[in-house]
Amino acid sequence: MSNSTSPQSIQLLEEGEGATFPPGFVWGAATAAYQIEGAVHEGGRSASIWDTFSHTPGRVLHGHTGDVACDHYHRYRDDVKLMAELGLKAYRLSVAWPRIQPDGHGPGNQAGLDFYRRLADELLEHGIEPWVTLYHWDLPQAIEDAGGWPNRDTAARFAEYAELTHAALGDRVQHWITLNEPWCSAFLGYGSGVHAPGRTNPGEAVRAAHHLMLGHGLATRAIRAARPDAEVGITLNLYAVSPQTSSDGDADAARRIDGLANRIFLDPVLRGSYPSDVVADLAAVTDLGHVRDGDLETISTPMSFLGINYYSRHVVAAPVEGVEPEPYWRAQSCWPGSEQVRFVTRGVPVTDMNWEIDAPGLTETLQRVHRDYPELPLYITENGSAFVDELVDGRVDDADRLGYFEAHLRACHTAIGSGVPLRGYFAWSLLDNYEWAWGYTKRFGMVYVDYESQRRIPKSSARWYADVIRRNGLAAQ
Ligand code: FCB
């Protein structure tokens, strides 16, 4: 198998040694609009697919919604102060499309643009560079009503929104991320339906993936046309994928899942083509008739960087006749054409999401992208973990989360040492927040949020991260 790496090749990392990062390494933290802002009816904002989804009974655990979330829309000044206290060099935020184009088209809504201008100004005044993600899953409901991402026109709508948001913020913002994790938008949103808009149609999921990438290419061109020196990239959620055993069947399962999780985005965006084995795997689902001449050229418009979100490894095995696979994250239908592949747990430590902790997989993922695709600067735009936190005497001692960050930063350091051009790291997340279909039940923050009082309490991991930033690396243990 040429495109994924066997477990045997995982390198053991130097344990306990100090690790200094290259000068200028970007130390940041990330959030997303719907997960923290609240104020869903203010400033002319309209409904997004996540408002509709979260207000539909049965979709989100305990019926939690993002109506209030961390109330960041009103508390952004205090939140930026907190970021400055932690010494963050950069902050990755997302713009809520329904604040900018409440009806999904037309001129920018002034109140919405002004909010992000004020936020960017506040960050810059504190010496923190804003990194803007244009789409972190909150499609205006009006666009979903017109067909959503399976509809080709949504790509053009997105480019228009990107252009006018850039026109309003381009004097303040240098780094632009078009999409966050199109895999989730397409395959969880339209395949398994566990994310908004909650549709379950494998063919539509594949169409959505294509139109998301087309939107990315068109938006990249629009921003570049307005400002040739803008830094524009995309964020993909990449997984290390490995077979359970060295059998041919398991190797094929790993090839399939690597194809549908990673290469279905990496290849079009970075090589201008769909991987032929993935096209063959998808044959029963779609003939890719929605792909038009010139699309792949647009999709592969050169980028300034690639953003990678890394959380875990998939270990997979061949289907077993007559045995239904354990659902992957509540439904197998997010793997069109490969629904029978089995996801295997290895009994290694997991986070509160039940995701296996696999820091070497991060090194492997970075090295693989560097080896298999044209060279470009890489950033970890998300990495982090949910654990059950306990607030005791006003403190949260989150040793597990701290350990997760440390192991993954060591993995980044190892990758850099082997020649990978990794230029920065954004911890997920600054604050505990609305974890999509899990509502407020999963805490990923370095800063604890007491949702009743909206008090913010930096956890031990936040204090530790501040120290990492100060010394530009990890202390020897
Ligand atoms: C990623 C999302 C982010 C957050 C983390 C835990 O898939 O981009 O919003 O939910 O997972």
Automatic annotation (TrEMBL):
Top-level taxon of the source organism: Bacteria
Catalytic activity: Hydrolysis of terminal, non-reducing beta-D-glucosyl residues with release of beta-D-glucose
Keyword Hydrolase attributed: yes
Top EC group: hydrolase
Keyword vocabulary terms for this entry: Carbohydrate metabolism, Cellulose degradation, Glycosidase, Hydrolase, Polysaccharide degradation
Enzyme Commission (EC) number: 3.2.1.21
Keyword field contains RNA-binding: no
Protein family per UniProt: Belongs to the glycosyl hydrolase 1 family.
Protein known as: Beta-glucosidase
